[in-house]
Amino acid sequence: MTPDHRMIIVSRMSAGFDLLGQTLRAQQKEEPGSEAHTTLENQVFEILYYIACEGARVGMGVAEIRDMGMARGRLQ
Fold first, then answer.
1. Is-contact 65 8, C-beta < 8 A?
2. Which residues contact 60 (CB under 8 A, 6 or more apart)?
3. Phi, psi of 60 (to 5 degrees)
4. Confidence of residue 76 (pLDDT cuts 50, 70, 90)
5. pLDDT one-digit tens code per residue, 6-52
6. How far is CA 66 from CA 1, 30, 38, 46, 54, in A?
7. How many domains in the chain?
8. Distance CA 52, CA 5 (A)
9. Domain span at residue 27?
10. What 8-state DSSP symbol labels residue 31?
């Protein structure tokens, strides 16, 4: 994998963390147990799965992915 390819994947992961934050904020506004809350919860898991798969493609471990997500959260 070239450094450019790795950078593209890491960039997509960053976008995934941004989307994750937006989805979590939207979910907090919905009534727990409602259809909208459940739908957003499912989206959260899909986004996390995507981020984990992309991280694995570039050889990142769970701790590195978590740290990246926490850093993204502090930047926003």
1. no
2. 68
3. -85, 140
4. low
5. 999 999 999 999 999 999 999 999 999 999 999 999 999 999 999 99
6. 22, 26, 24, 16, 13
7. 1
8. 17
9. 3-75
10. P
